[in-house]
Specification:
Layout: E1 110-111, E2 117-118, E3 141-144, E4 147-150, E5 159-162, E6 166-169, E7 190-196, E8 200-205, E9 216-218, E10 228-229, E11 237-240, E12 251-252, E13 279-283, E14 289-293, E15 326-333, H1 334-337, H2 349-360, E16 366-376, E17 379-386, E18 389-394, H3 395-399, H4 413-425, E19 430-438, E20 441-447, E21 451-453, H5 457-460, H6 476-488, E22 493-501, E23 504-510
Length: about 500
């Protein structure tokens, strides 16, 4: 016969599946554990398994990835047997040692020739109650209700169902042949694979064609242990899911760090340093008023300084007072500039000085200015700048950056380039001026946050044609062209050229 089969005959008995070995694996009524062939990958016999999906075991032990694991259907290490489960009373104990086979230790099976308790519901291994297993593989016998029953004669060619969806065929001598074509399991049998989901059981059910169905998680609870819910509870109450995956009773909520008043006592996250995500004022390291935020663990974060404002103080703690080059385009007249320098009638050193004084005398953070950036008759536009530093130097020092910058021609491309280079060398972005000139003294303004760009004279001449690098390389028309071009790029204004060579025309754009 050579095939191992199982069948559930008693409704109260749940038979767990045992893996089917090679032909002859149950010959002689033996259900001794089988060793795994070299290189075989199998996971042990299916059946009543104590392994869960995460690798833990229902008996609380943990499978050793490199050692023996009782209940996997393979004899390993110090095991004397392994019948694919960790149940005692079936011939192989829960710790994989042989048991005495008798009616007490083997109530639902029979004792094979090696003294092991086996299923006893197969044609080759039949019996129960700890009795010696019978062999029903004779052509005229079949294992039925765990006892051998004689088969009557038959008509040649007649077929009879047997085992797990198998069939016997009546031979020409009117005797029944062996059970052939059996499936891997008995219809309706259940293979338990371990735990799953919310306290559920992962199992496979043998189908009507004696093949195993897909694994399914059954008998799950309604929640996951440790989960919290307020459904069905009163105000400020909650319930917790138990280890049996069912909801416990509603209890007054415990305060946790979540930005809420869980226990309804009127205080958010009481018991913690602060309410999660709340903000409060604080004093920064430079003395300004900053903001601190309550972190995810309900502890205060560091004090963050505010943005720099025009107040004569270092608000953002970067060591600079009122920095951040901010410009404001102002409308005025040449006549008004005469109050600061009577020589301001168009463009040049006199207007540089007048505009500087006008801007420095305004309320706010303006410390200097440049222009005119537009002019029409007596009307003019100038630019006042905040967050800059007015530098007092000498022409001798500026000549160290460009020798052609002299007190004779202070408002020139040469001095503009020398001032730009001086400011850059001293850690600024650029500079403009001079805003005051009295040889040997010269004053100019260095800026922190300008952006140096190269629009080219070709582009600037499309805005103011005379600023083409030939008719004019530095002067009133180029002031206007640079101012308008920087505004087109999204800035507040700009000045220059601070460097020029051929068609290249480097200017400095400043933000509002």
């Amino acid at each position: 016969m050579g095939r191992c089969s199982m069948r559930v005959f008693d409704a109260w008995l749940v038979v767990s599946l045992i893996s089917v070995g090679s032909a002859g694996g149950c010959a002689g009524g033996s259900r001794a554990a089988k060793t795994k062939p070299d290189g075989a990958a199998g996971d042990g016999a299916p059946g009543k398994s104590d392994a869960t999906l995460d690798g833990s075991r229902t008996d609380g032990s943990q499978a050793d990835g490199g050692g023996a694991r009782c209940g996997n259907g393979v004899v390993e290490g110090q095991e004397a047997c392994d019948d694919g489960n960790t149940l005692s009373g079936d011939g192989c104990s829960a710790d994989c040692h042989l048991e005495t086979c008798d009616a007490q230790s083997c109530p639902q099976g029979c004792c094979n020739q090696t003294g092991q308790c086996v299923n006893g519901a197969q044609d080759a291994v039949c019996g129960k109650g700890g009795q010696t297993c019978q062999d029903c593989t004779q052509s005229d016998e079949i294992c039925h209700n765990q006892a051998c029953e004689a088969l009557t004669g038959c008509d040649p060619g007649t077929k009879m169902d047997c085992g797990n969806c198998g069939q016997r065929t009546c031979a020409g001598d009117r005797t029944w042949g062996g059970c052939e074509g059996e499936g891997v399991c008995g219809a309706g049998e259940i293979q338990e694979l371990g735990t799953c989901g919310n306290c559920g059981t992962l199992q496979r059910v043998c189908q009507s064609d004696c093949t195993l169905g897909d694994a399914q998680c059954v008998n799950e609870g309604i929640c996951h242990p440790g989960d919290i819910s307020t459904d069905g509870c009163g105000a400020c109450q909650s319930k917790e899911c138990t280890q049996q995956c069912s909801w416990g009773s509603c209890q007054t909520a415990q305060e946790v760090c979540n930005g809420q008043d869980d226990d309804c006592n009127g205080t958010c996250d009481d018991g913690f340093a602060c309410c999660q995500a709340a903000t409060d004022s604080c004093t920064t390291s430079c003395g300004s008023t900053g903001t601190k935020t309550c972190q995810s663990g309900c502890t205060w974060g560091s004090c963050q300084p505010p943005s720099e404002t025009c107040n004569g103080q270092d608000d953002n703690c970067d060591g600079h007072v009122d920095e951040g080059y901010r410009v404001d385009v102002e409308g005025s007249t040449f006549t008004a500039m005469h109050a600061y320098n009577a020589g301001c009638n168009g463009w040049g050193m006199a207007c540089n000085n007048a505009i500087h004084q006008f801007c420095a005398g305004r309320n706010g953070c303006s410390v200097s200015g440049f222009g005119p950036v537009e002019a029409n008759g007596d009307n003019m536009n100038l630019v006042c700048a905040a967050g800059a530093d007015v530098i007092t130097s000498t022409y001798t020092e500026l000549q160290g950056y460009l020798s052609s910058c002299t007190s004779a021609t202070p408002a020139s491309g040469s001095c503009s380039a020398a001032i730009h280079r001086y400011c850059w060398h001293h850690g600024y972005t650029s500079g403009f001026g001079p805003v005051y000139s009295a040889d040997p003294t010269v004053r100019f303004t260095c800026v922190h946050d300008g952006t140096v760009l190269n629009p080219t004279y070709t582009v600037l001449s499309t805005i103011q044609p005379p600023c083409d690098g030939s008719t004019e390389r530095w002067g009133m028309y180029c002031n206007s062209a640079i101012h308008r071009w920087c505004q087109q790029q999204g800035y507040g204004s700009g000045y220059g050229p601070v460097e020029n060579n051929g068609d290249d025309c480097y200017v400095v754009c400043l933000t509002n």
